[in-house]
């Protein structure tokens, strides 16, 4: 167990809907990263937060947004969902901003029907 | 911009054969390189990092700055090595992953 908790494990929804994925980092970790994993694209970096502030942005769509709360948990919001958004969404945490190894959650499997 | 390239999506080897998973990177600064592994039904986990210069489960990886490579090697593959392997680069407060290589060890 890495200490990173993601909920829910599975999410099935319809196109056009909005969902929220939640991540609790390891105790003491200040950085949270979000990744999207699909079969053809591999692991795509979406966004990183450090102690509540956005630190780095990757290939995140405008329909997606994220935030990190004072208690350091993070939420990834996906709106106007499309079929192509179906993927495994991983959260990871680390102790410092990008220079430490990442600890991954078990992921949320999103299926958009 | 930073980029990590893993040219092989799938690598099949026989048990006992040597394994080399290729990783090339592009980064203007001084990178930190990692290999992560994802076994079936398990979460991604760190396998090794270049600054540690360690051997984990028989795997080693050497950073070659001249060739901008960080290939993962093991002299004798075992069935339990079958998994997805991701090369990752940490730099500029981002961690970028390659597309991953699925290693299949044939008994």
Could you explain the architecture of this structure?
The complex is a heterodimer of chains A (113) and B (107). In chain A, 0% of the residues lie in helices and 53% in strands. Chain A starts with a strand and ends with a strand. The mean pLDDT of chain A is 91. Chain A has no helices and eleven strands. Chain A is an all-beta fold and 113 residues long. Chain B has 107 residues and is mainly β. Chain B is 0% helix and 47% strand. Chain B contains no helices and eleven strands. In chain B, strands 2, 5, 6, 9, 10 and 11 form a six-stranded mixed sheet that branches. A three-stranded antiparallel sheet of chain B has the order 3-8-7, with no helix packed on it. The chains are: A mainly beta (113), B mainly beta (107). At the A-B interface, strand 5 and strand 10 of A face strand 5, strand 6, strand 9 and strand 10 of B.
């Amino acid at each position: 167990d890495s200490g990173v908790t993601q909920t829910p494990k599975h999410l099935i929804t319809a196109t056009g809907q909005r969902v929220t994925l939640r991540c609790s980092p390891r105790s003491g970790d200040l950085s949270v990263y979000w990744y999207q994993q699909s079969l053809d694209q591999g692991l795509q970096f979406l966004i990183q937060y450090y102690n509540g502030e956005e630190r780095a942005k990757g290939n995140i769509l405008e329909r997606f947004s994220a935030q990190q709360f004072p208690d350091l948990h993070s939420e990834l919001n996906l709106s106007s969902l499309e079929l192509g958004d179906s993927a495994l969404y991983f959260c990871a945490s680390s102790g410092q901003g990008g220079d430490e190894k990442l600890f991954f959650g078990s992921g949320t499997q999103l299926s958009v029907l | 911009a930073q980029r990590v390239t893993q040219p092989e999506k799938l690598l099949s080897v026989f048990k006992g054969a040597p394994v080399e998973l290729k990783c090339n990177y592009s980064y203007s600064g001084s990178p930190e390189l990692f290999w992560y592994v994802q076994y079936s039904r398990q979460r991604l986990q760190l396998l090794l990092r270049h600054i540690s210069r360690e051997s984990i489960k028989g795997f080693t990886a050497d950073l070659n700055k001249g060739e901008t490579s960080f290939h993962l090697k093991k002299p004798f593959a075992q069935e339990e090595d079958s998994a997805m392997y991701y090369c990752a680069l940490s730099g500029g407060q981002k961690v970028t992953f390659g597309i991953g290589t699925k290693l299949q060890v044939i008994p």
